[in-house]
Amino acid sequence: MTKPTRTSRTRDEDKLDTTTSPESAQLYDPDNQDLSQGRTSSLNRWDTPWFNWKLISGTAIVGIIVLIGIFGRFLWDTELVYVGKCPLNLPPVGFENSRGQTGTWSHPFGTENSGRDMLALTIIGAPNSLLVGFVAATIGIGIGILLGFISGFIGGLTDDLIRLLAGITITVPSLLVLIIIQSLVEQIGLFTMATLLAVFAWPGPTLVIRGQVMSMRESGYVQMARLSGASPLRIMFGEIMPNLLPYLAASFIGSVSGSILAAVGLETLGLGPQRVPTLGGTLYFALEAAALLRNMWWWLGIPIFILSLIFMGLLLINLGLDEIANPRLRKATE
Amino acid sequence: MSHQTPLSPKLPLVTSLIKNMLKILKLSCLMLILSCSALALKPVDRTDTVIFDAYGRIANPYIFNWMVPGATRSHGMHQSVWEPLFILNYETDEIEPWLGLSFTSNDQLDIWTLKIRDEVKWADGEAYDADDIVFTIDLLLNDETLSLGEAANMQQWIGSVEKIDPLTVQFNLKAPNPRFQLDYFSVRVWGNVVILPQHVWQDKDPFTFDNFDLNRGWPLGTGPYRLAQATETEFIYDRREDWWGLETGFQDLPQPKRLIWVVTGVEENRSLLAANSELDVVGGITLGAFEAISAMNPNMVAWKAKMPYVWLDPCPRQISLNHTIPPWDQPDMRRAISLIIDRRQIVEIAYEGTSFPSKSIFVAYQGMKPYIDAIPHLWIPETSDVDEGKRLLEARGWRLGSGKNKFYQKEMTDGSTQTLSINLQTNAAGIELRRVADVVVEQLRTAGINASNRAIEGATWNDNKAFGKFEGVVDWDACGSVNEPWLTMNRYTNQFYRPIGARAPGNNNFVRWQGSKADRYSQLVAQIGVLPLGGSGIEPLFTEAMQLFLEEQVIIPLNQAIMLIPFNTTYWTGWPTETNNYIHPPMWWMSAHRVIHNLKKAR
Predict the structure, then answer these.
(1) Which of B10, B238, B256, B592 is positioned for an S-S bond with B79, CB 3.0–4.6 A?
(2) Do B292 and A115 touch (CB under 8 A)?
(3) Any chain B CB within 8 A of the CB of A79?
(4) Confidence class of residue B199 from pLDDT cuts 50, 70 and 90?
(5) At CA B129, angle to CA B126 and CA B133, rounded to 5?
C-alpha cells in the first residue's frame, strides 16, 4: 500500500478531503498517524457547519450595530437625540442643504427639522429597533416553544385547542389590531411595544415547532428514551429540543426580523414610542415634513440604510442557521 | 285544474322574481344613465379652471346637508355655491355686505333687523327672500336635540324670528348682543349660518336629508357656480351664466369657468401637485416644503413675499391644564409651567421661526391690538424664567430628586412619594401640535418635571377635552375673538362649567375653572357682553377680568398660529397677498367668494 504524501496530492483531492469526515480520514491513512492526526485536527477545526460565511457575516453586521449602540454612548453625546438640542436641518459633512448651509463635524450625519442629531439617532435608535425585535421574538418564540412542544408531543384535545388558538390568531389582521391597541395605550415604551408585537409573534413558531416535534417523537432515540422511562418533560426538553436548536435559532431570527418590521411599520405611522428615539419614528417625522421634497435625503436615507443593514444581517444569519439545521441545503450550496 | 293547484303557489313567486329582476334592471339602467350623465362633463380648458386643495379627508362626499355632524362644506360648497349674508374683512376690519344689505339693532341691542338684496335668486330661478331666512332660523330653533349645526347658538340668543316684508327679517333676541351679526352671519371665522331654500327643504327631514341630487339641481345655492360632479376625491363646480349678481349689477361673473377641489393627501403629494401646476392653491404647508416647491415652480406666491411667508391664523396655540386634577388645580403650579416654557424656542423649532410668541390669550390681529396693548403689565414673557418657576414648585413642597432621578418629588400625606409628572395630549391629525408638544416636553423635563406627550385621534382628543379626561392638552380653544375680546373671554365663564364626565358645551371652559375669581370674571365678561362694540366702557372691565384670568393662569398661552398658503400664479393672478390685501387668504373659508371673484387669467 503506497503511502500518499502531502506533496503528491492534487488541489482537487484536497478539496475532496475537506468534505470528508474525520472518521473516514482516519480510515484512509491508518499508518501515518502524525500526518493524519494533524490534518484531522485541521479538518475538525474548519469543517464545522457553524463555520458558515453567511452566519458569520450576518452576525458581524448585527454585532457592529449593537457595538455602535453600546460604545457609541461613550463616544458621542446622546442627549443630542432629543428635540431642540442642535441647529435645525443641517446636512451631513461634505454636503449642502437647500439653504446653502454646509455640514459640520459637530453633527457629522446632519440634523433634522426639530434639532435632533442624526448620529445620536443612529447610536440610540438602531439598537432600540433591534431591542424591540429581540424582546418581541424572545417572548414569541418562548411561547411558541412551550405550546409547540406541548401540542406536538401530547397531541389529542390539547393539540386541537392549541392549533385552533394559533389558527385564529394568525387570521387576525395584526397590524390593524396593533394600531387600535397602540392608540388606546396611555404611554408607549419600547417594552410595551415589544409585548404588543409578541402577542402576534407566537402562532407561527408554535405551529412549525409542533410539526417538527410530531415528526421527531416517532424517531428511534425518542422511543428509546420512552422505553427507558424518561418523563415527557425530559424527552421534550432533554432529547428533542437539543436537536431542534439550530432550527429554533433560525425561527428566532426570522421572528426578530418580523417584529422589527412590524415595529417600524407602527412607528412610521406615528404610533411608536413618543419620546424614545427609534428608526421608524425618524421615518415618520421625515415623511410628515416632506423630507425628500426638501432635499433632506439624510433624514430618510440614514434610517433606511441602517434598517437595510439590520434586515440584511438578520437574513444572512437566518440563511446560515438554515444551512446548519438542514444538511441537504448545506450540500446544495457547497 | 288538478295540475294548476300545485303550480299556483309557484306562479306568483316566478312573477315576483321576474318583476324584481326587471326592477333591478331598470335601476341599473337608471344608475348607468345617471353616472354617464354625471361623467359627461363638458371639457373646460385648464386655463379656465382653478384647482383647489380640499385639504384633508372627506368623510361623507355625498352629503350636502351642512347642518348634520360630519358633513363637509369647505370642499367648494361654501366658497362657490352657498353665499354668505356678510363677510368680515380681516384686512379692513369691516363687515362687507353680500346677500345682505344691512343688519341693524335697536338701542337695547336685543332686536336686530336684517335687510337683504332685491332680486337675489336661487340657481333654479326661485326668489331668495325673507321666507327662506325665517324658515332656516325656525328649523334651527326647533331642533330640540341641539345636534344640528348652529342650533345651539341660535337657541342661545334668538327668542323668535319674523318676516317684516319679503326683503326684511327681524330677530328678537333673548338678551342684548352687540355681536349678533358679527358672530353668526359675517364669516367671522371659517363660515356661519347658511340659509336654506325653503321650497326644497320644507318637506324634508333635516336630520336625514342628504341634499344631493344633481339631476334636480341639488345642492341648491345662490352662488355663481353649481356642483357638477362629486366623488370621494374630487368635487367639480361649473360656472352659471344666469347668476343673480350679474343680472342685478352686483358683480361681474367670476372669470374661472370651472372650480375643482381635489383631495390631495399628505404634504408631499400636495407640494408635488403644486410644483407641477396641477394645483392652484395649497391648503397649508410647512416652510421647508414651500421653499422646495418655490424652487421648482417660481410662479408660487404666498401671503408675504419673503420669510416667513405666512398669514396669521385666528386661533393661537396654548396649553390647557385640567383644573380638577392635582397638583394642577393650584394656580401656582400652572404658573410654574408657564414660567418654565421658553416660547421663543417653540417658535424657532416647531415653526422654524415662522411664527411668534403670544403676549396674551388673543390673536395678534390689528383689531385686537387696542385690547392687547391695554394690558402690557400682563403680557407673557417670550423666554422662560426657570428659576422663578422652580421657586413656585418648591414653595408647594416639591423637591428636586438627586442622582438618576432628576425629577421633582413630594412626600404625600399617606407616606408615599410622588414624582411631578404631566401628560400632554395632542391631536394626531396634524404634526404641528405634536411638534409644539415635543419642545414643551423637553423644556419641562430639563426643569425637573417628568413630562410626556401623546398624539391621539382628533375625535377622541375633542371628547377627552369635553369630558375632562386629560391632565393637559395642547389646543387652540381660546379661538374666537378677532376684533373684540368678548367672544374668547366668554368661553371661560362659569356658565360653561361642567363636572368631570359631563360634556363641556362647545368645549367652552373645558379646563373646568371655577371658584370666586371665576365668578367675578364671569360677571365682568357678562358686563362687557352688553356694551356696544368698541365702547369706552369695555377697557376697565376687560383689564380687571384679564388680571383675574392670568392670576389664576386659567390657560397657558404659547404662540400665534400661522398658515403658509401657497398660490400658483401660472394660470391665475389676483390672489390675496400682503401687498394686495383686499381680503384675508384662507381658501377653505366662506370668505373665499371674494377671492374667486377677484381672480384674473394669467394668460
Answers:
(1) B592
(2) no
(3) no
(4) very high
(5) 120
| B272 at A interface, C-beta within 8 A | yes
Share of chain B above pLDDT 70, in %: 92
What is the set of domains in chain A, with CATH numbers?
Answer: 11-40 (no CATH), 53-333 (1.10.3720.10)
Q: Does the CB of B289 have a partner CB in chain A at under 8 Å?
A: yes
Chain A residues with CB-CB distance to B289 below 8 A: 289-290, 293-294
| B286: chain A residues, CB-CB within 8 Å | 289-290
Q: What is the ipTM of this complex?
A: 0.73
A82 touches chain B (CB under 8 A): yes
Mean per-residue pLDDT of chain A? 83
Amino acid present at B389? G
DSSP B544-569: HHHHHHHHTT-SEEEE--EE---EET
Gyration radius (Cα) of chain A, Å: 26
Q: How many domains does chain B have?
A: 2
Indicate whether B230 belongs to any domain.
Answer: no
B244 within domain boundaries: no
Q: Tell me which residue in B428, B435, B438 faces A270 most closely, judged by beta carbons.
A: B428
Contact criterion met (CB < 8 Å) for A288 and B267 = yes
What is the C-alpha to C-alpha distance for residues B386 and B443, in angstroms, rounded to an integer?
9
B267, B349, B457: residue with CB nearest A290 = B267
pLDDT at position B18 over 90 = no
> Per the structure block, which three cell numbers stand in for B158?
334668538
Q: Is residue B597 in some structural domain?
A: no
Query: Are B266 and A296 in contact (CB < 8 Å)?
Result: no
Q: Tell me, yes or no, whether B198 and B345 share the same domain.
A: no
B142 is a domain residue: yes
Among B293, B345, B441, the residue with its CB nearest the CB of A275 is B441
User: In this predicted structure, what is the pLDDT of residue A282?
Assistant: 94
Mean pLDDT across A163-172: 91
Are residues B369 and B488 located together in one domain of the fold? yes
Contact residues, A window 290-309, toward B, CB-based 8 Å cutoff:
290, 292-296
Give the Cβ contact number of residue A142 at 10 Å: 15
On the question of pLDDT at A136 being above 70, the answer is: yes
Q: Is A89 on the interface with B (CB under 8 A)?
A: yes
Interval B232-243: pLDDT, tens: 899 999 999 999
Partners of residue B431 in chain A, C-beta under 8 Å? 285, 288-289
B138, three cell numbers: 325656525
Q: By CA distance, what is A295's nearest residue in B?
A: B292
When pLDDT is cut at 50, 70 and 90, the band that residue A12 belongs to is very low
pLDDT (mean) for B546-565: 96
Rounded to an integer, the average pLDDT of A272-298 is 88
pLDDT for B429: 67
Query: Residue B169's pLDDT is what?
Result: 98
What are the cell numbers at A294?
426638501
Range of the domain at B546: 317-561
How far, rounded to the nearest angstrom, does the alpha carbon of residue B327 sit from its chain's CA centroid? 33
Burial of B376 (0-12, 13-18, 19+ CB in 10 A): exposed
Nearest CA in chain B to A115: B349
Q: Which residue has the higher pLDDT, A272 or B299?
A: B299
Contact B288/A289, CB-based, under 8 Å? yes
Instruction: From B210, B237, B265, give the residue that closes a domain.
Output: B210
Interval B466-524: pLDDT, tens: 899 999 999 999 998 998 999 999 999 998 899 999 988 778 999 999 999 999 999 99
Q: How buried is residue B539: exposed, middle or buried, by Cβ count under 10 Å (0-12/13-18/19+)?
A: middle
